[in-house]
Prior knowledge:
The complex is a heterodimer of chains A (255) and B (262).
Chain A: E1 4-8, H1 13-25, E2 30-33, H2 44-47, E3 57-60, E4 63-66, H3 68-78, H4 89-123, H5 128-136, H6 141-151, H7 157-180, H8 191-200, H9 203-206, H10 217-227, H11 230-236, H12 242-254
Parallel strand pairs in A: 1-2
Antiparallel strand pairs in A: 1-3, 3-4
Chain B: E1 5-8, H1 13-25, E2 30-33, H2 51-54, E3 63-66, E4 69-71, H3 74-84, H4 95-130, H5 134-142, H6 147-157, H7 163-183, H8 197-206, H9 209-212, H10 221-232, H11 234-240
Parallel strand pairs in B: 1-2
Antiparallel strand pairs in B: 1-3, 3-4
Helix pairs in contact in B: 1-3, 1-8, 1-11, 4-7, 4-8
Amino acid sequence: xxxxxxxxxxxxxxxxxxxxxxxxxxxxxxxxxxxxxxxxxxxxxxxxxxxxxxxxxxxxxxxxxxxxxxxxxxxxxxxxxxxxxxxxxxxxxxxxxxxxxxxxxxxxxxxxxxxxxxxxxxxxxxxxxxxxxxxxxxxxxxxxxxxxxxxxxxxxxxxxxxxxxxxxxxxxxxxxxxxxxxxxxxxxxxxxxxxxxxxxxxxxxxxxxxxxxxxxxxxxxxxxxxxxxxxxxxxxxxxxxxxxxxxxxxxxxxx
Amino acid sequence: xxxxxxxxxxxxxxxxxxxxxxxxxxxxxxxxxxxxxxxxxxxxxxxxxxxxxxxxxxxxxxxxxxxxxxxxxxxxxxxxxxxxxxxxxxxxxxxxxxxxxxxxxxxxxxxxxxxxxxxxxxxxxxxxxxxxxxxxxxxxxxxxxxxxxxxxxxxxxxxxxxxxxxxxxxxxxxxxxxxxxxxxxxxxxxxxxxxxxxxxxxxxxxxxxxxxxxxxxxxxxxxxxxxxxxxxxxxxxxxxxxxxxxxxxxxxxxxxxxxxxx
Lengths: 255, 262
């Protein structure tokens, strides 16, 4: 039996980070698929694992770990396998900087747009009462606010415009970064690549105006390299739907 | 190993935490005080790569310029000092304890520091910024790369106050004091058991709130005793001794934004 259990949704954004980190380290894990759109993450069985009701969560022995980026750092330090942090202290600082920039500045903008265009419409078919009942079950007040906005399409135009501005700016900064080094933040593949790839692997389809071989040659080169990694392909093969379809379509492009 | 120049504001918030972490590390890095509220952070000499300064989620915090690169974000600078010194005890060596420390620091930087920065800036920096000549303020804005960071400067100068954010920030400060109180309930001396970056980062942000939000500390005796312990550490004392003005706990410049999702 595997020593590690991971509760995750699709290989995308936060759920994909520990999935890919574990795959890169060669650590087998028991996979528990949490269907975010069925709100598995707020059901009693999952709240018994993570009372915050956020995904992903990882169990290692008797330890329960949450927060995808922090889980990845734990995975890298705990298990044998290739180092996913560079040895140089300044490179390590840069890896952390880029992960925070993604987790707290760029990532929320990606997800606001994703929730507005994908998650919200997928939930619109449910009755108002059903949606209210789903919201009432969410443990964290901040998450209740976020889900309410998604379920009732309450994102304002200015909020969305700001998210789009940040996505465009973030892509520009990433392009510049990948012009300085082979990978994000250092010259070796690291947690920063795993983190950022999980939110940018679909850019050529989702934002072809922002990310294409002419406008962003460095991102293109980096995507091509990362797509080819066996652990990446193994991870996206675990998906069950549109994210893996998108990955496979792009894989043909990058092969 | 580590080199460069650390440009820091008055010892408060991220500048206090980074200066104290540097003292704990024993590294010899030159420290130069700058006026964060005058925007001096955006005109540092010797910076060839400024992205981490320009887009720091932390806002106007200290900057280490090393090999032409501007390095920012207090928690990560503290980790950098620890690692460049070959491990000075600021991070637990066990990966699980380290995970717990990172989780705590993330709560501090996502919940506590935006709240404290919001309240502190309104209380102590708004009037100073409003008194700046328009021409000077425009020149300052012109040096700030990030559009949302410029907006936070402009809103502070214009005294744009969101009552809901004020209330939410006050609640978060009180919640954090209560969280510390609960963390120390088992009699531990430091937040993570052994002394770590979590103590420095939390203390550095909470220190100013003893004056501004005294009610948040009502009955939180363990929290207050812990603050006294952190404040008495030689590293913190030496960091505080770098103050160039009386009352460094009142020195604020636009900090991290309050979560856009609500």
